[in-house]
Structure formats: structure tokens, C-alpha cells
Amino acid sequence: MNNAFTLHPQLAADTTLVTDGPLSHVLLMNDARYPWLILVPRRPDLVDYDDLSTEDRKILGDEVAAVSSVIKRRFDAFKTNVAMLGNMVPQLHCHVIGRFKDDAVWPGPVWGVGTAKPYDEDEGRDRLAALRADLISAFKHL
Question: Coiled-coil intervals in this record (predicted)?
Fold first, then answer.
């Protein structure tokens, strides 16, 4: 067992830190096709949801609800998809993805379909700033 939290290298390569919630890093997936955030609990050696303590499961649930609400409000998303797959990246992480009836793969899942469209510098900076402000505000209420 490792006693220090370390972000999985694949998550580090594919995302940018937006902010920290009470439990989790909130990361922006570098795919401009969808408003896509990933929450990673800052605890070492977590693989599956049941590895979280009872208290941390509640905190993560509250964070996911806050992130989902921000995505729906900020992007006028039709709905959010929330998933913890972990088949490619074993570190426990939770995807929260804004979905739209006119997105390229609606109503199917986003995984393994198409090619990620990285943010250009201005768009990425603007999206990060907006999400950071929204999430810092939302997390104050947790």
C-alpha cells in the first residue's frame, strides 16, 4: 500500500486540473466535443467504489451532484452521464459528461467513438476559468 495520493499518469496526460472539491481533484478532459469533467478522490490506492469509506462515498456523491448541476447550468446540457468504468485506468475516477440530443453519438455512450478534439488554447482557458468559478462556488455549499 502506498500512503500518498498520486494521480494516474493517463489521467494526468488527458486532463487539466479545474479545482479541488472537498474530496476530489476535478479535472477537465481535453475533449472539446463534450463538457466532460472527471473527479478523482485524493486518497491512495483506490480502485473501486467500494474502496471508499462510507463518509467518502457520501462526499463523492455530493461532489458529483454539484458537478452535474454546474455542467447542466453552464452548458444547457440535456442531461449528464455519470460513470465509473476504470477498465483502462484502474485508479478510481468518476466521469461526469454533459450530453445533448444533437451531439455526435447521442444517445449512445461517448467511449470509443470518434476522435477526441483537443481544446484550442483560448477555448480551453475560457472553459477552465468558467468551470473553476462555478465549481468553487458550488463546493462552498457542500
Answer: none
- What pLDDT sits at residue 3? 77
> What's 17-68 look like in SS3?
EEEECCCEEEEEECCCCCCEEEEEECCCCCCCHHHCCHHHHHHHHHHHHHHH
Residue-level pLDDT at 1:
55
What's this model's pTM, rounded to 2 decimal places? Answer: 0.96
Looking from the CA of 142 toward its CB, the CA atoms found within 13 Å total 21
- Give the per-residue pLDDT at 112: 86
Residues of the chain under the 70 pLDDT cut? 1-2
User: Is the distance from CB of 14 to CB of 25 less than 8 angstroms?
Assistant: no
Backbone angles phi, psi at 26, to 5 degrees: -110, 120
Domains in the chain: boundaries: 9-139
CATH superfamily for 9-139 is HIT-like (3.30.428.10)
